[in-house]
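REVIEWER CHECKLIST
Item 1: Sequence provided? yes
Item 2: Single chain? yes
Item 3: Sequence as submitted:
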Amino acid sequence: MLEVFHAVYRRDRLKKNSKGVKKSPEPSSAQHQEMLKDLRKRDVIINSTTELINELKQVVKQLRHYDIWSSREPLEVNDPNTGGYTYRTDLPTNNLNEVDIKEQETLDFVHEQLSLALRNAIEQEISDRINNLKKSKHYSSLAEQLIPGLQLYYCQGLSLKDIASKLGMINWDQARRVLNPGELLSKIRIRTVQQVLDSVLSKAEEKGLTKIPPESDYLKKLAQEIEAFADDEIFREAAEEIRVGKGRSMNSLYAQSVRSYLIKSQERVVNEASQLEESGANANQLDFPTSSLDKFDGEQTKLLNILDEQLRIALAEAIEQEVRNHITTLQTSKKYSSLTKQYIPGLQLYYCEAMPLREIAPKLGMTSWNQARRVLNPGELLEKVRTLTLQQLIDSILKKAEEGLNQIPAEPDYLKSLAEQIEAFADKEVFQEAAEEIRAGKNRSMDSVYAQLLRSYLQEKDCVATNDDGGVSKVSSALFRCGTPSEF
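Item 4: Structure as written out by the authors:
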């Protein structure tokens, strides 16, 4: 780390040719990025500038505490038990009971606020954009095409040129003016950063960490840090996806959040169209719409037996497909491709041993809870499995209806109502309980139908996992403690 720091920072200082003793300025954002890039070349993986700064501060503490220049004693000493080197025990190390726990709590709080702010900003900015289009002289007639256009862009990865022809627009330029994903990203970024800044300031005031009102220098520096943090976590990767053009992957956290919003938006449209009494829309990605099955009547009740059978099949197939898709996504990811092999073991620890992400991270050699969340992301997996299950289930029921229930009407209003009832049935039987398990945090039971079927899949997938050298993995032993899933 020192070699990389000096290679970048000292080089730039020498270029300025400063004379006299002056206080060294803080490294710039560009310097931080160059350091991170150089560290990756040395197989040192640090995921953000915030983490890099914390690591450098730790080195500074060690150097200040131990005068390496006068004593000429190393920071690391030989370990006779292993034959390798280990850190000196008399140097300050991470204290998980004090400083690091507070830092981790702060980081967790900022991550939580960032995720919440992103969801709110996406919802608000898309809503504002629809309203602006409705008021526009040139594009008011295309306001209703915004949501379908964004679905084609972020869910199917279509280019604006292809979207234009699909939605009956004149040309690529008209599609760009209506959708304008770059401008939408920029506005969502501004709103997200502002909301996180407000939340952090409120927390700081609550704990007495800043003056009320805060000083301008403090406010400016805090805003810059939050902005850099948000860019590292979300917006830089999202901007790169848009710049790529054709062949874009749309796997960024931003793209995933937009897709999640679009799915919920579509659900709200269905709810309004069918005029159901209970609304299923909810801003939380793990909250699913609820409804009553009492609305099934007449011929619809004949579908219940078919639903029960088809739900089992669709759920099992969706789990298998989405786990495979996630593995493929990790393999093609710049940041997380090296952790692809840890995905199945991570799910085993999460669903078989009910282990929290914070404990899974060190067991699998991950740098932090956040990295484990990014790799495993059980909430996102549940959301995707639910979406695929519902689609397969609806298709199966409609096919059965065509085959043997000819008297069932096929009008659009009826189909919307039927889809809503199927959705409510699947949520009641499977997904509501699964979502509650994930939200529970520690001491979760993992007894839901979803968790049982996922464990069953993991057992079939990798009953005896092996290491690269052919040995049996210790992690795979978790499988033999999963037990047999109860009858669905």
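Item 5: Key structural point noted by reviewer: Residues 99-135 form the longest helix (37 residues).
Item 6: Recommendation: ____
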